[in-house]
Write a structure and sequence with these properties.
By secondary structure, the chain is of the alpha+beta class. Helices cover about 55% and strands about 10% of the residues. It has 6 helices and 7 strands; from the N terminus they run ααβαββαβαβββα. The protein has a 4-stranded antiparallel sheet with strand order 2-3-1-4. A 3-stranded antiparallel sheet has the order 5-6-7, with helices on one face.
């Protein structure tokens, strides 16, 4: 599944979610109006009044109207219940589609690595130049890969392109095994003599190799880092595109799969604080 296809599907899926949200609001509003109408009419039927012939006739007429109204309400409630079921079913299908898109995108990204701090060879560096540079760097790190192991490598723009830092590189492998070999020695990139790969001396001082994270995982990582800082956790990192937190060196690593895991951690912390107070 191509990046553009995934992006298009995600936009369609987000649009569907927005439509369902609007539909649910309208549904709740209609449901509330029916309940208020039922309560108002019940109050009118139960309110005390002076009974006379005209009142009795009026009440008989209102009673007939009330029976018709009750029949309508019963039908309306049945239809509302059916509509709510359909909306829930559609929402579940949309959520399943969203998960399938996320899984497909995650699988595609699992072939990639992201390199930071690699000087650009020239202003308009070609994909073949970038790919060749990546292979040279990986070889210098001790991984035996060739250009045949690389699908494509290219520079990606960032919001801070004007800060003087080189653009990051995304390198997509054909084989995940090659990618895993690179990630296994990723810290060795700082040990490379830059001149061996055609770069200026000291130019790899800030170089690093990371998992290439999907936008969703990037946001989760950012939120997890914020949680770490606000809750006195020592460590936050990613491995194989999964986000982890650890309280301190001797504590267990906590896998963070989504925002609910962060919310559960926060709830656990609050409960623990209350019980210890």
């Amino acid at each position: 599944m191509s990046k553009d296809t995934v992006k298009s599907l995600k936009k369609q899926n987000d649009d569907l979610k927005a439509q369902i949200e609007i539909l649910m609001k309208d549904f709740r509003k209609l449901e509330e109006n029916v309940k208020q109408n039922e309560a108002r009419n019940a109050d009118q039927m139960n309110s005390p009044s002076t009974v006379n012939k005209e009142t009795i006739k009026s009440l008989e007429y209102l009673g007939s109207e009330y029976d018709d109204l009750q029949s309508f309400r019963t039908s309306a409630r049945r239809q509302l219940s059916h509509l709510e079921g359909r909306i829930t079913e559609i929402a579940e299908n949309v959520e399943n589609l969203s998960k399938s898109i996320d899984d497909a995108q995650q699988y595609s990204y699992s072939f990639n690595v992201k390199l930071l701090g690699i000087p650009e060879l020239e202003a308009k560096e070609s994909a073949i130049q970038t790919s060749t540079l990546c292979v040279q760097i990986f070889n210098a790190m001790g991984v035996q890969v060739t250009l045949q192991d690389v699908d494509i490598a290219h520079r990606v723009p960032t919001r801070r392109n004007n800060d003087g830092r080189p653009k990051p590189i995304v390198c997509k492998f054909i084989r995940r095994l090659a990618r895993e070999q690179v990630m296994a020695v990723r810290r060795d990139i700082k040990k490379i003599n830059p001149r061996l790969v055609g770069l200026p001396k000291e130019s790899l001082a800030n170089a690093a190799v990371y998992d290439h994270l999907t936008p969703k995982t990037q946001q989760l990582l950012a939120d997890a880092k914020r949680f770490k800082d606000e809750n006195d956790f020592r460590f936050c990192w990613t491995k194989n595109s999964m986000v982890y937190l650890r309280k301190h060196e001797d504590s267990r690593a906590i896998k963070i799969k989504d925002q609910r895991d962060l919310a559960n951690l926060q709830t656990t912390k609050v409960k623990s604080k209350i019980s210890n107070s």
